[in-house]
Amino acid sequence: MKLLVINPNISEDVTALIQAEALRSAAPETEIVVRTASRGVEYIETRFESLIAAGAVAEIIAEHCGGPSSERVDGVVVAAFGDPGMPALKELADVPVVGITEAALCAAALQGQRFAIIAISDRIKAWYRDCVDSFGLGSRLVSIRSIDETLKTIGSVQTDFKDTLLALSRQAVAEDGADVVILAGAPLAGLARELAGQIPVPVVDGISAGIRMAEAVVGMASGPHRSGSFAPPPPKGRKGLPSSINAALADVQSAQAAAAAS
């Protein structure tokens, strides 16, 4: 199995954290291909920044789902909490595309009735709440607690604020009644392992959840979307799109037409 793991942020430091946790989480036979957005922002905090990131993510997916067979992958993990471009990106690829938010929420829902999210900034909370609501799990979210200090660098959030993140997690359990804690965002990748045993409920890492969920969905071999709301966009005139996007759209539209004719 070959999984494409995309950092929608431009931070190579965060990509390194993502790659390390992805490799720790993946099954031995799973090949991990990690890519970083070529444009955008250092880390995504707002809906608009998510919009910017979505286009960069789409191009990376297109390069691996509509190009030479040697570059093709079996599944994709969008490795930023908030799932930039999701679920629309599912329409572009003929392989499973999993966001770490949806993966983390599913993992939390399997382990408890009520969950809390620990975030890296106050500004990010509104967007995260929108994401949880979009998955229909708003009633199970007890709180989003966040760091309220200025970040030094995005790649050092774990080391700079480990004690704060631990305290926020414990507060979410003791004061908010969380059955599960989600450490949100790629900058926190791997921290759940480091805090193991220090938080009295299950702790979910988004990257780990994304990798394991993607492996499970790919392994199920359920088949691609050829109809329904996640079917490829219908053929129509296009202008100014990257060649990779055009190629990927042509591929999935051709496959959809062939399936309809059979």
What would your notes on this structure say?
There is one protein chain. By secondary structure, the chain is an alpha/beta fold. The chain has two domains: 2-100 and 212-225, Rossmann fold (3-Layer(aba) Sandwich); 101-205, 3-Layer(aba) Sandwich (Rossmann fold), CATH 3.40.50. It contains eight helices and eight strands. Strands 2-1-3-4 form a four-stranded parallel β-sheet, sandwiched between helices. It has a four-stranded parallel β-sheet with strand order 6-5-7-8, with helices on both faces. Strand 7, helix 6 and strand 8 (203-205) form a beta-alpha-beta unit. Helix 2 packs across helix 8 (243-261) and helix 3 (100-111) packs across helix 7 (206-220). The chain is globular and about 60 Å long. The two termini are 28 Å apart. The model has no long low-confidence stretch (mean pLDDT 93).
